[in-house]
Structures are given as C-alpha cells and as structure tokens.
Amino acid sequence: MTSIDHSTEAVVIIGSGAGGGTLAYELTKAGIECVLLEAGPYLRGEDYMNLEWAAFDQMAWTDTRTTSGSWRVAKDFPNLPAWIVKAVGGTTTHWSGATPRFKPHEFRTRSTYGRVDGASLMDWPLTYEELEPYYTRAEDAIGSTHRGGRPPLPANNNYKVLAAGAEQLGYRHYATGPYGTNAEPYDGRPASIQDGFNFQGDKNGSKWSTMVREIPRALETGKLDLRPDSHVAQILHDRTGRVDAVLYLDTEGNLHRQAAKLVCVAGNAIETPRLLHLSSSSLFPDGLANSSGLVGRNYMRHMTGSVYAQFDKPVHMYRGETMAGNISDESVHDPSRGFAGGYYIQTISLGPAFMASFVEPGAWGPSFTRLLDAYENTAGCWLVGEDMPQESNAITLDPTVTDQHGLPVAHVHFDDHPNDIAMREHAYSRGEALYEAVGAVGTHRTTPYPSTHNLGTCRMSERPEDGVVDGFGRAHDVPNLFVSDGSQFTTGAAANPTLTIVALAIRQAEHIAESLRSGAV
Amino acid sequence: MQWEGDAMSAPSGDEAVNEIEGTDEAEATLTALIKAAFPHERVPDSAYRRAADTVRCAAEESAWMRVKLAHGLDSLEALAHGRFTELSPEEALPLLLRIQHTTFFGFVRQTVVVSLYEDEEVWEAVGYEGPSFEKGGYLHRGFDDLDWLPDPRIEEYDGDPLVEVVSDLPRAATTKSVRGAAVPAGQSRARAGRTGRGTKGQQA
After folding, report:
1. Does the pLDDT value for residue B188 go beyond 90?
2. Is the peptide bond before A450 cis (omega within 30 degrees of 0)?
3. What is the strand order of the sheet A66-68 is part of?
4. Which chain B residues are closer than 8 Å to A355 by Cβ?
5. Chain B touched by A338 (CB under 8 Å)
6. What are the DSSP calls for A118-155, one per residue?
7. What distance, in Å, lies between the first and last C-alpha atoms of chain A?
8. Is the Cβ pair A351, B128 closer than 8 Å?
9. By CA distance, what is B144's nearest residue in A?
10. What gap in Å lies between CA A138 and CA A133, rounded to an integer?
11. Residues B28-60: pLDDT tens digits?
12. Which of A171, A369, A378, A499 should be substituted to probe chain B, the one whose Cβ sees the most B Cβ atoms within 10 Å?
C-alpha cells in the first residue's frame, strides 16, 4: 500500500463508507493522492459472521452516545441512537441494499409541500436534473438491479407475501428492487446465494459495499493510503481559517497529525457534526464551519416502523435477500392522506435474536413470546419515508460524558414532528391491511429501530446563513473543507439514502479534482 | 461460551451475598423465573438453564448486579412462599408483574432477551435455521418455497407511471395557485407523470 508522509499535505478523507469510500476511489482514479482515515478495523468478507449479536459486537458503532427527546429510542436504547458500522466500508458493510432515487420534487420540498409548521423545509441548491447523470453512475457502481439492463432478483418468500398483499390493496409499483446485490455475476462479484445475512456483512461479496469495490480499487491505483483504526479527534486550521491538518488517535490512544491540503468529512450524520464541534477554536468558537449555527441541527432519521404479520402457514422470511422487495405506491406527495411527503414499504427480516430485542423493546411474558413462537410463519415489512427537518433535532457535544479517548460524546436529541407521526400511523395501517388482505392471523406494529438513516446535520444551502455546505458539499465558511456523507442532505426524501450519497460523492469528486487542477481550493 | 467458565464455582461462607447465592435453589429459581418470563412450549429446559448461567455470569461482572440478583431471587421465593419453582408459568406471571420494575428483573430480562434467542435449541423451537453461508445460503434450500400464494411479478410495473405529486387543489387551479410559492406551477398530473418517468433512469 502507498504510504503518504504525515507531513505531506494530502487530501484527507475521514470515513470509508458510501461517501468517503466512493470519494477515495474517484479521486485516486483521477490521480490524486488521498489519506483515508477509518475509525474502525479492516474487516473483510471472511471476518463477517452469520450471527446477529456477534456480528453487531464486531462491527457496530458502539462508542457511547447519549440521547434525549420524545422518540422511543431514547427510552429503550438510550446509548444506541443509531445502528451504523465502524469498519472499513462504513455502514455500506451492513446496509440492506435498497436503491430508489430521490424524486425530482424531493429536491424542492419547500416549493412543493409549501409551509409546514415547525419544519425547516428548504429546497436543495441542486436539482434532480443536475444529479441525474450521477445517479446512473452510482447505480452502475452499485450494480442496482432493474437498472442499466441488469436483471431483477427472483422473488423470495417474504416478497411473495408482500407482493400478493400489494396487489390486493391495488398497489402496482412493486418489484424486487432496485437493489444493490447481484442477481447475476456483475463487476467481478458473484450472484446472490440468498443466504439472508445482510445486516451482518455479506460473506459472499454479492452485495455492493465500498469494502468490496471502491476501496480495493482505490488501493490498486497506488494513490491511496488507507489507515484503519484511526479515529479523528480534531480538524486543525491555519490563521487564515483554511484547514491544514487532522489529529487522529490509533487504537492505543496515541495521537497522530496528518497534514492536509483539503479535508472531506464523511463520518455519518452523527460523527460528522460531532467532529466539527470538537474542532472549535478561537477562530471558530461555535465549531468549525458553523457560522450558520446549523452544524448538527436538522437531524433527520427518516420516518420508520415495521409491521410483522403472522400467518397460519410457513413463510420463512429469513431465507433470501432481506430487502429485495419494494412498494413505491405510497412514496408520492399526496396531501389528501393528511401529511406531506411519502414512504416506501420494503421487505425486512430479522433473526430470532434481533426480533427478540427489537420487535417490542422491553417486552416479556406470553404476549411477547407468542410473537417469537410464530417466527416461522411471520412476514415482515419496513416502512421508510421522509421526516420533517426541525432545527431542534440536533447533535451536540454532551457536556459531561466522554468516550474511551476522553472526547465529549455526541448527544442526539430527537422529537417526531406531527407530520412524521401522521405518516407513521398511515404506513402502519397500510402495512397491516396489506398482510390482512392475504390472510394474516395477527399483526404487530414495531417501533422504529435505532436509526440506520442519519441525515441532514450539515445541510446544503444556497446561502451561507441557511446551511453549512454549498451544492457541492463545500463548507460555506472554509474553502478547503467538504462534507461527503448524508449530513449534506437539505431534506431527507423518502428513499433509502445510500444511492444518493454515492451519487453526490461521485459528483463532489469531479468538483474537487477540477478545483485542485484550477487552484480554486 | 461464558457459562462454562470459572464462575460456575459458587461463592460460600463469608463471601456469599446471602444464604441462597450460589445454591441449587437459586439456580432453580432463576431458571424458573426465566421460563415464566419467556414461556415457550417448544423450548427445552436445557436452553433455559443456559440462559440462567449467562445471567449469573453477567452478574459476576458487577458487585451491584450480583447483590441485586442474590437478593432478588431470595425475595421472589419469599413472595412465592418458597415454592416459586413449583408454579406454572401462568401462576408465576402475577408475581413477575409485581417485580417487573425492579432492577433485578430488568437485569434478568435484558440479559435473557439477548442470549436466549441466540441459542440453537431455541432457533430450532421457533423454526429458524441459523448461519447459512457455509451451507450455500438458501438458493437451493427453499428461499422461494412458499407455495400458498401466487408467484408475483418481480419486474417493475410497466403501466402508467407513478403520479409523484398529487395536488390537493382542483386541477384547474394548479397552474395559477393563489398560494404562490406554496404550490408552484407544474403540479398537474400530466407534469408529475413526465417527471415520474425520469426517475426510472434508463428504464424510461
């Protein structure tokens, strides 16, 4: 592997997931030397495990965080607000694989939805049309099924139930994708063997992640210095306010300094604003790049929920691709339903271990064990839709709790907006109706899991006072600082975010390469 | 696994929290408690005993939890007049409801909920097959064997595109809205239909 000297001013990328991993590949492919700092270990396919809790302990980001707000996660999992990955590949290691695009109007929600009380809706400084070519490139990188001539995955058991129910309800826009796992060999990776393990990392390598594609290819260019187990503690700047280095910790707690000509932060929407806050200085007293006061604010986590339905016949939902089933009919903006924005209905499956912890957190007794006893005959869906940005939903530094390195931990405050609650109620009802239409003998509404979609905490805006970064993800306040993950999202849209994060990263890489060539940064 | 470690040796004499800590009675009460809190007809006692071992080992890691567990089991027996292990799950339930908010019960529940359901005998009881990669996944082992519903379409719908923005205003008003920016021009169904095709990428 290429070794870049610590005093060489490199492009430094923080985080190796959908945003950072993609950026590292696109920049090194363009001949630009990068240092990629990943807080977690370098786990590979052979390290992944087909065991839910063992895999969780192996790869989840379990460094302490604290929570507040009326969301139920703060009560049930007060130190686990988000379920994301700390390993090379970031959260693409355990993502499910659903790859819908945002819809054009979801880039201009303020104009489309109008004013929603208590919501800080804003149009993106970017249109669907501008991002469209990058969506195509992202789909080709991921290998999304149903796109670019790639075939659909076959119907698994859980999908058969979902699709039959959808048909009964009059839904038409259902399919087994688009989905980021190969239905047939593609791009040097094999077809899915339908092993049912996604949230634990795909041992077969059929599922796209930056660990299987972008990072090895970036290493092959000879331009990447990948440093796993490197937790960034602070971004430093010079007297003119340009960032010029980062400080990071190795597993022994030793501090290292890497010089930087440009820094891209892609630590997911909790760690990214935490790092900017940790990087405050006398020049940036409220946190780096935070003249707007919006670093960490407008935290979004998507409206989510699940419905698990019990039948009198076997389903075996755990066999096969977890989320290769998607209904788009409710993903539209139709205010007659009583809320703004839309949601998708997607297949989901948990093994008994995760079912027990998440199907009804805190529950016990016969009403609980009945849900597990019905496991074999259970089908499940996930409801995922746009939630309203609210400035009061925020990532801040906890004033009293520190992590294993002594750094203040992230505090996550979240309250559902009434629009989120109305959408969730609608989605639960439709999920129940769907399963009842094909003979469910019982259904259970499962509360949102710890957040897997973390968004919006360094939002894009046209004007510096309205957000943290511009339409390319460049900090309004710091010319050589970029945000490269879902933190950039001005609003969350209904779609699962990974595809859009990848598309934005490809576009950002082009912009950075051009800016470095022209001397604009 | 943890329950095969040194923690099997019971504390005795001055080292014990109370008279029942580490005794067979404590072990039996804990197992009965877990069985009553997580009743499954098809789960064998061996799985419940392993869960009890896990709880005891977890308690060893914290003096506070060790004390809570020893006292909790003692007072549960007191509530049951010394015959908790003889109660059926239905009979035990009212007692558990009385102690459900105690640190003791919370600790047991929390520990069991993450260990019991990773037990292979429990998987077998609820109809789950465990790790599958080494067996070649389910590609040839029933990922699509559900036969009581028709085989569904797997491709995307090729009929009318999804109408992505449904206006709440009468159609005649959509292009000249009195609400100005709140409802911009171009929200008619025809326009929404065109943008809808755009989102399908190369499928358009």
Report:
1. no
2. no
3. A66-68, A408-413, A394-402
4. 117
5. no
6. T------SS-HHHHHHHHHHHHHHHT-TTSTTPPPPPP
7. 27
8. yes
9. A156
10. 9
11. 999 999 999 999 999 999 999 999 999 999 999
12. A369
- Count other C-beta atoms under 10 Å from residue A54's C-beta: 13
**pLDDT score, position B17:** 84
User: How much of chain A, in percent, has pLDDT values that exceed 70?
Assistant: 100
Those residues whose C-beta lies under 8 Å from the C-beta of residue B55, and which sit 6 or more positions away, are B30, B34, B69, B107, B108, B111, B112, B115
Q: Tell me how long chain A is.
A: 521
**H or E element at residue B58:** helix B45-60
Per-residue DSSP letter, A251:
T
Please list every residue in chain A whose beta carbon sits closer than 8 Å to the beta carbon of residue B129: 318-319
User: Cβ–Cβ contacts within 10 Å for residue A261, how many?
Assistant: 18
From the number of C-beta atoms within 10 Å of its C-beta (0-12, 13-18, 19+), residue B78 rates as exposed
Distance from the Cα of B105 to chain A's closest Cα (Å) equals: 11
Q: Give DSSP secondary structure letters for A263-280.
A: EEE-SHHHHHHHHHHHT-
C-alpha span between A60 and A52 (Å, rounded): 11
Cβ of A314: how many Cβ atoms within 10 Å? 16
Secondary structure class of A257 (helix, strand, coil): strand
Given this model, what pLDDT does residue A212 score? 98
pLDDT confidence bin for B167, thresholds 50/70/90: confident
The model's pTM? 0.93
Mutate to test the interface with B, among A160, A334, A357, A359 (most CBs of B within 10 A): A160
Task: Please count the CA atoms within 13 angstroms of the CA of A304 that sit on its side-chain side.
Answer: 24
Q: How far apart are CA A449 and CA A302, in angstroms?
A: 11
The residue of chain A with its CA nearest to that of B146 is A157
Average pLDDT over residues A88-105: 98
A157 — contact with chain B (CB < 8 Å)? Answer: yes
Q: Answer yes or no: do A318 and B203 touch at CB < 8 A.
A: no
Q: How far is A325 from chain B (nearest CA, A)?
A: 9
Among chain A residues, the shortest Cα distance to B137 is held by A195
Cβ atoms of A451 and A420 within 8 Å: the answer is no
Asked if A482 and A473 count as a contact pair (C-beta separation under 8 A), the reply is: yes
Residue B192 pLDDT greater than 60, yes or no: no
ipTM, two decimals: 0.95
CB contact under 8 A, B114 and A353: yes
pLDDT tops 80 at residue B10:
no
> What element of type H or E holds A345?
strand A343-347
A353 touches chain B (CB under 8 A): yes
> Which tens digits make up the pLDDT trace of A441-499?
999 999 999 999 999 999 999 999 999 999 999 999 999 999 999 999 999 999 999 99
- CB-nearest to B138 from A194, A336, A369 is A194
CA B160 to chain centre: 40
Render the burial of A105-126: b for 16+ CB within 10 Å, e for the rest: bbbbbbbbbbebeebbbbbbbb
**For residue B193, which residues of chain A lie inside 8 Å, CB to CB?**
none
Query: Around Cβ B9, how many Cβ atoms within 10 Å?
Result: 8
Q: What single-letter amino acid sits at A281?
A: S
